[in-house]
Write a structure and sequence with these properties.
Blueprint (H helix, E strand, L loop, with lengths): L1 H17 L6 H14 L4 E2 L4 E4 L20 E6 L1 E3 L2 E2 L2 E6 L6 H19 L7 H18 L9 H11 L29 E4 L2 E4 L13 E4 L2 E6 L2 E4 L8 H9 L1
Antiparallel strand pairs: 1-4, 2-3, 3-6, 4-5, 7-10, 8-9, 10-11
This protein binds glycine (GLY) and manganese (II) ion (2 copies).
Family: Belongs to the peptidase M24B family.
GO molecular function: aminopeptidase activity; metal ion binding
Keywords: Aminopeptidase, Hydrolase, Manganese, Metal-binding, Protease
């Protein structure tokens, strides 16, 4: 699992460097596949999502065949299989290598919630608990950005956040991407388990309840987490996710 996470992380890094305005989603798909195989993976673990601009708001977008315009972000969800073990990583980055102010605000909100959620991944907690923690964190961030009313209480925030993140915080990961689907997310996490943590904020272009500058942006950040007795170990830690790191590697 560590090797699978490491291979796909390096493939993402090369794919970020390869991005430029006008690149086709298909080329980024080919690049991540190529780099994962070069790194030793047998194949990609599932059809990846490579979505430019507003297409990132279609959760299971796999057409992966459109040009990505200058000023847009690209959301890539890709994993590989290494000796039967799957990784499942998502990153979102500006295709031109430079976050706009609005993109950085939304991205910063998702990143901060994602890091807080990872800290919750210790033995004894459950994916469902981390999910509710995520909804509250996203809700508070959306309030800070002026997207949600500051008068909403925690119960309402939990409900309304689901409109902006209509999927769970994560799932078990192993020999399948969605591993052991019959194991409930209310089971306690144990040492040795691997899960994904993948919060997102999705704002379709037509969402006119949200300030214009945030419309048409979809962001997800997904890492693979091993539960250990020393706390969470991020198996995809080599995959850049800080704004300054992404901008700096894309300059090269
Ligand atoms: N790649 C599928 C998922 O993130 O769950
Ligand atoms: Mn994924
Ligand atoms: Mn996943």
């Amino acid at each position: 699992m560590r090797k699978s996470g490491s291979i796909i992380s390096k493939a993402f890094k090369e794919t970020m460097k390869f991005s430029k305005p006008g690149v086709n989603e298909a080329h980024l798909y080919a690049k991540v596949d190529f780099e994962a195989r070069l790194g030793g993976a047998e194949f990609l673990a599932y059809p990846p999502v490579v979505a430019g601009g507003n297409r990132a708001n279609t959760l299971h977008y796999i057409s992966n065949n459109q040009a990505i315009d200058d000023g847009e972000m690209v959301l890539m969800d890709a994993g590989c299989e290494y000796h039967g073990y799957a990784s499942d990583v998502t990153r979102t980055w500006p295709v031109n290598g430079q976050f706009s102010e609005a993109q950085a605000e939304l991205y910063g909100a998702v990143l901060s919630v994602q890091k807080d959620c990872i800290e919750q991944c210790t033995a004894g907690s459950t994916l469902d608990q981390v999910y509710h923690f995520m909804l509250l964190g996203l809700g508070r961030s959306l309030q800070n950005l002026g997207i949600l009313s500051s008068s909403l209480n925690d119960v309402d925030l939990n409900r309304v956040s689901k409109m902006f993140c209509p999927h769970h915080v994560g799932h078990y990961l192993g020999m399948d991407t969605h591993d052991t689907v019959r194991v409930s997310r209310s089971n306690q996490l144990q040492h040795g388990m691997v899960i994904t943590i993948e919060p997102g904020i999705y704002i379709p272009a037509a969402e006119d309840s949200v300030p214009t500058k945030y419309r048409g942006i979809g962001i997800r950040i997904e890492d693979n987490i091993l539960i250990t007795d020393k706390g969470p170990e991020v198996l995809s830690q080599e995959c850049p996710k800080e704004i300054d790191v992404i901008e700096s590697i894309m300059k090269r």
